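pinging the channel bc i need a second pair of eyes. not urgent but kinda urgent?? the chain im working w is below, pasted from the shared doc
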Amino acid sequence: MTICTDAFEQMATLDKRVLGQADLAVAIIEHPLVYRTSDEIEQLADSVMPVLDQLFRGVAP
């Protein structure tokens, strides 16, 4: 599994295929991260946790 921001979603999709890992799960979060406060990053992490939980269990979100 990998996590990337929406700005890199297309690149992640292409990289998965090129690397022969088309089934690799990718969780997408909002871009950019650099200007966010610690509290905003924590909220973002909390919001993606249900998706990560499903991906780890092999359930499509």
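so The chain has a mean pLDDT of 91. and The chain has one domain: 2-56. — does that match what u expected or am i reading it wrong
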